[in-house]
Amino acid sequence: MGEPDRRGLSSVVGYALTLGIVTLLVTGLLWTGGGLVDGQRTETVRGEFEAIGQLLATDLATADRLVRAGDGETVVTVRRSLPVEVAGASYTVELVVGTPARLVLTATDPEVTVVVHVRVATNVVSSTASGGPVAVVYTGTGLKVRDG
Amino acid sequence: MAALNRSGATGRGRRRGQLLLVGAVVLASFLVSLTLVLNAGVYAQNLSTRAGESVVDGATVTGGTEAAVGGLLEVAIDAAPDATATQTDTVVAGVAALGAQFGRNAAQERSYTNITYLGATEGTRLVQPAERNFTNATGTGDWGLVSGVTGLRQFRLNVTRATLVDVSTAANGTGDAFRVRLSDGEGHRWLVYVYRVGGETRVHATDVDSGATSVVCRDTTGSHSVVDVTAGTLDGERCPALELFDRRPGRLETNAGVTVEYVGAVVGGAPTVAGSYELTVDVEESVVDDGDFAADGSAAAPRAEAALYAVDVRLAHETRSLEYATRLRVAPGEPDG
Question: How close B3 comes to chain A (CA, Å)?
Fold first, then answer.
């Protein structure tokens, strides 16, 4: 009676262990990596919305100043080329009437909303534009944003 | 049997290879996603620091047009005093020339700019061009220059310091000083005192109704002091006492109709001030000109001369990122309020 032959069993156990550990590692990597990418994406969208909002607020202030510099019959169009998507997410820009007026930038995936206050003396008109080329316009009724 | 073992080993090796490949692809995808997201973040930072070129363009063109047309208006009035038809012809020709010049400059800067003449507002320039006391044409010391005007610009007095009342002497007080009385249709009344203390010109303003007195502005340079009532300056320096049209409560409202009078130009039979002055208002000469001014065509002073008050132009400016068109009313030296 010699020692039982366990060489075959060793290979199977070793293989199963390797498969299990690698599967565990890959799953863990996917889990944490996916979460990290999603978090970074949300923060990036938020940061970019802040930047876009400030740029549009500047354009509204420019148009406001030009309207006030004139003495009637004023037409102003300030164009700006904004990114069509932000970190892979499409978005909309809404100009909301209020004191002060607000620019609301919204993306649905990921769900991010950023509000930027706008301080202008000229009336504003509630209006919406999508990402991409955008224009701030004044044609006598008030300042508004539109796809440009 | 040996062949079977080799085959089995090879199959397991293939499966391990597939697992490694899948792992590598997943890892690569993760890194690429992370890179793209971080790159978008860098782009956001870049976006936030981009300058708005249109801001500079629009403001520069508006300011440049107002300055150029304002200068043109002054030249036209000086070249043909008391002749608004000739002044208008000069302005129309000048605006056309300016439009052509703007067009040439704009072509070099890849933009389009044009100005066109729309019309002009006739008014009156009240002027005493040479050294004289501040009495009216008949020598009266308390008299009204204009009443109820809704537009006035470039109201400047160039006073000779030595002729001002010196209130530091026992014989005189600020009540003996020369004053400009300004009032509007809403009941706001202000007195601007112009006097000297030794070799220093002093100016202050008093609210007639409340008695509140402004800070005192001083000038010691040269032998003359320029009191610019509409610009709010004394000898070119900001003078808070003269900021009477700055839209603060209690200040003068031009829209309500402003009246300008001189008070105390003569006290005890002696003039309290001498020098020159100028004021342009937005009402026609026939309304302003009365017995206080020298006869038409006379070289005597003070005179009321027909003069353009303001010029209206249409400004159009276009760049890659800005389209701007507006009506500009140019009245140089008009207070902002």
Answer: 16
